[in-house]
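[agent] plan:
  1. take the single chain provided in the ticket
  2. run structure prediction with default settings
  3. attach structure tokens to the ticket
  4. add a short note for the reviewer (M.T.)
[agent] executing step 1
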Amino acid sequence: MKPNEATIPEGSECEVGLDKSFGFSKHFVTNFELGQEVGRGHFGYTCSAKGKKGSFKGLDVAVKVIPKSKV
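[agent] step 2 finished; step 3 output follows
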């Protein structure tokens, strides 16, 4: 396998949502609107997101999603 090949299944995981029982993600959907996947690597994938509340409101950010099985 080449160093940059993804080991995570292809698909639209960004639309599925996040594990709400772990860390900041339990309030993630309240504060951010998750967008399209922009990249992937060995440990996870990155999606675009836009802040919906507070100091992040209107801010475009990138969100790295790492499945617990990869940690």
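[agent] step 4 note for reviewer: The chain is about 10% helix and 30% strand.
[agent] ticket updated
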